[in-house]
Amino acid sequence: MKRRTEHSPAGGAWRAALLSRSLIRGDEDGARHALGGEVAALLEAPLDANWLYTVAVLGVIAAELEHERAAAELYPLLLPFGNRVVTVGCGCVSLGSASLSLGVLATLLGERSAAVAHLEEAVRCNDELGAIAFGAASRQALARALDDPARAAELRREVEATTAEIGMRLPGGLIWFP
Length: 178
Hints:
Blueprint: H1 2-7, H2 11-24, H3 28-44, H4 51-65, H5 68-78, E1 85-88, E2 93-97, H6 98-108, H7 112-129, H8 132-145, H9 149-166
Antiparallel strand pairs: 1-2
Helix pairs in contact: 2-3, 2-4, 3-4, 4-5, 4-6, 5-6, 6-7, 6-8, 7-8, 8-9
């Protein structure tokens, strides 16, 4: 993966995936340090087939790290693409609705009503796609964003049922793994 970050036109997407992997492996300090540079590089990156994947992954990482400055930069970039499905590798891999990333960013930024709207859209879109795992992740994030304890509890029950049915364990932190 490291070699691909240097030699691929999709270097930003590969770096975002590596950053995600670092975070999953517990290197929060390294991920936090690298995130600012990746956000700055994204601002200069071409709007190509890998851009949406890169900004969506960086958005989830910013939310996981509670990096408000990065979130504030990424949210407006991603906002026009909330109705899109995130893919990479010429559409070989899908990460579900871009609204999931928008929702976790809005949650971090304290924009509760926007977060709920984005996450409800992510649930709808992912369910429509048949993206079961991303539907569960969207429900998990929505439960965290809601001020309604009863609805949040119902969403958590749905997540538990879905993840048990498909043999998946959603992490306590990261929303999805790019």
